[in-house]
Description:
Elements: E1 10-14, H1 21-29, E2 35-39, H2 42-54, E3 59-63, H3 71-79, E4 84-89, H4 100-118, E5 122-131, H5 142-152, H6 166-189, E6 194-200, H7 206-214, H8 216-223, H9 233-243, E7 255-258, H10 262-265
Parallel strand pairs: 1-2, 1-4, 2-3, 4-5, 5-6, 6-7
Amino acid sequence: MSDASLPEGAIIITGAAGGMGRPAAIRFARRGQPLILCDVSAERLDALAEELRAGGAQVSTLAGDVAAPDFPAQVLELLGDQDIAAMIHTAGLSPTMADGERVFEVNYFATVRLVDAVAPRMASGGCAVLISSVSAYMIPQPEFAAAANAVVQGDRDAVAPFLQSPQSAYPLSKLAIIRLVAHEAKRFGTRGARIVSIAPGYMDTGMGRQEADANAQMRGLIERVPLGRMGQGDEIAAMAEFLCTPGASYVSGCDIRVDGGAVGELGL
Length: 268
């Protein structure tokens, strides 16, 4: 999609050394715009930055915990006086990586703080892409939907009953991301910018393989994917890149499933 221009400004990618963030960084580096790459792993982040700089990319890095209270301020400090042409926010935790409260803090509350920070700095024509999950479509219980809606409206206590287990906290955090994108579309729209989310299916990334190894039910669902395989990180990155281009200029406030047909196969 590199033939379709983005507005002037920097491109922020979180989780940049991960299974979806790394291919996104490689794709956006080809555009010749300044990159701000963030990841919790300083070693992997530095290696990626060195690789991209060798190809001529202008790269700034921020190694740190996306859930740290000062993380958004650190991102803005690196941004300086530049506008934001695009933000691809892939940083997050899956159920086997932490307890329920930590999963929700990283996946949702940290995202809210980052979105609040970048919204006033979005360029006209810019786009923020968040990562949800097909798991959000697999929890149809009304109480989950009510909790997701309430937390987006600022009621942190609404999700407390669901945080005892990472297996419930994770899909709820992703459902809340989908609701957040819908809620934030108007604020982004006042700047001529957009905000969307992508729901990856079962991904052949380090995180995805770790979850599949730990979850027999998930392995069974992978076998039912109509395309007959797990997804690749670059397939998410490709969609993120497209969503940031003028070709997607009327797409905002919604969730895009990139799941090989998995949700449809389940009739959800």
